[in-house]
Write a structure and sequence with these properties.
By secondary structure, this protein is mainly α. 81% of the residues lie in helices and 0% in strands. α4 runs antiparallel to α9 and α6 crosses α7. It is globular and about 75 Å long.
Length: 248
């Protein structure tokens, strides 16, 4: 019964693949715009022998580095903004100026300031992921029930203990939600940056295949990074449940 349930969950994907193949094979859409699904599968098999995983690993290194730095700095900055007014006064104007800016507009600036190496892509991802983490941490810490804070203080807890042992755990669900948004942004900015300023990585490979007319390979590259993003999100959701298990 469990096997049937598992197979049933994959039925929509199977139907999508069949529809994709039929639409392309019967000429309803040009093969340049939508290569047959079977061609994409064969292109994926070919690319695995031509450096696909090396490009993917390079992309994951950039994405993970920028994302991890944004999480550490963002959570710390957001919580401190909510707890210490001078920190809020110092950081808030910068956040207000960066928030409405399209993050892709930072690509030429990172090239000009940092160059074409990995640091420019990591910086782009860091800045793009930083804002949702800071804002979620700030709003979560500021919205903690005051009764919890008063209770901790009445029992003699120091301000630092109240912050890290009461406020941060209570704010954790909203903080983790903001980090999940940042994770999705990391993949978007990663591919965007590599399409323009890279000589390796999955975004670079997608652009290279597209310019060379290998559209099936290009779709295989897109499918690869999409699958990596999907499993990263599922893994993060599982980790979040484990972290928040104490609240149940």
């Amino acid at each position: 019964m469990r096997l049937v349930h598992t197979l049933w969950r994959f039925t929509p994907l199977l139907l999508l693949a069949l529809a994709w193949e039929a639409i392309s094979r019967f000429g309803l859409v040009s093969e340049y715009a939508l290569p047959p699904f079977s061609d994409v599968v064969m292109a994926f098999s070919r690319l695995t022998d031509e450096g696909l995983w090396a490009h993917t690993a390079q992309s994951l290194y950039r994405g993970a580095t920028g994302f991890a730095c944004a999480v550490v700095v963002g959570v710390l900055a957001g919580v401190l903004m909510a707890w210490y007014r001078p920190v809020h006064i110092l950081i808030n104007p910068l956040l207000r100026s960066l928030y409405p800016m399209p993050k892709s507009a930072l690509i030429p600036l990172t090239i000009m300031w940092i160059g074409l190496g990995d640091t420019s892509k990591i910086t782009l991802i860091f800045i793009g992921c930083l804002l949702p983490v800071v804002l979620s941490a700030f709003n979560a810490a500021r919205g903690v029930d005051q009764v919890l804070i008063w209770s901790a203080r009445s029992m003699g807890a120091k301000e630092r203990e109240v912050l890290w042992e009461v406020v941060v755990p209570a704010a954790m669900p909203e903080i983790l939600s903001g980090i999940r948004i940042a994770l999705a942004l990391a993949f978007i900015l990663l591919v965007s940056g590599e399409l323009i300023i890279a000589n390796n990585g999955i975004g670079y490979l997608i652009d290279l295949l597209g310019e060379g007319g290998d559209y099936a390979g290009m779709f295989a590259g897109v499918a690869t990074i999409s699958a990596v993003g999907f499993f990263a999100d599922r893994g993060y959701v599982a980790l979040t449940r484990r972290i928040l298990a104490w609240r149940e």
